[in-house]
Design brief:
Layout (H helix, E strand, L loop, with lengths): L9 E5 L3 H13 L3 E5 L2 H11 L3 E5 L7 H10 L8 E5 L4 H10 L3 E4 L4 H11 L5
Helix pairs in contact: 2-3
Length: 130
């Protein structure tokens, strides 16, 4: 008897840099993930509701709605409170990491990130769905 194939893990990548979005999309789609891209926090909030991602990667430094605010809004919503949110930042200070935790992030990855680092974060934080 054949096992049913699991649907791909849906990953939302939020970053105002086209280069970062495309790099993450390439790495994650090669690993079999379905990747949704957003340019900022406002764009992301609509896409979260529409696509219900299993995990979210969010840049901290973005115009209009930064990564901390976006993370807080995601975590405050009852439907998405348990969705893992991974902060992406070129800032690697203790204060930045602590602020990410206070906003509700599950992990903090410093840019430039690696393919293996992104994929490991997905598999460490997304439980296998039955």
């Amino acid at each position: 008897m054949q096992q049913e194939a699991q649907p791909p893990i849906r990953v939302l990548v939020i970053d105002d840099s086209n280069t970062i979005r495309r790099s993450a999309e390439l790495y994650l789609s090669q690993a079999g993930c379905e990747v949704i891209l957003a340019e900022d926090g406002f764009d992301a909030l609509v896409k979260i509701a529409d696509h219900e991602p299993h995990i979210v990667f969010v840049d901290i430094m973005m115009p209009r709605l930064d990564g901390y605010q976006t993370c807080e809004l995601i975590k405050r919503h009852p439907k998405f409170a348990s969705t893992p949110v991974i902060m992406l930042s070129s800032k690697d200070g203790l204060f930045d990491r602590a602020r990410g935790r206070l906003a509700g992030s599950d992990l903090y990855i410093t840019k430039p990130f690696t393919r293996d680092g992104l994929i490991k974060a997905v598999y460490d934080h997304v439980r296998v769905r039955v």
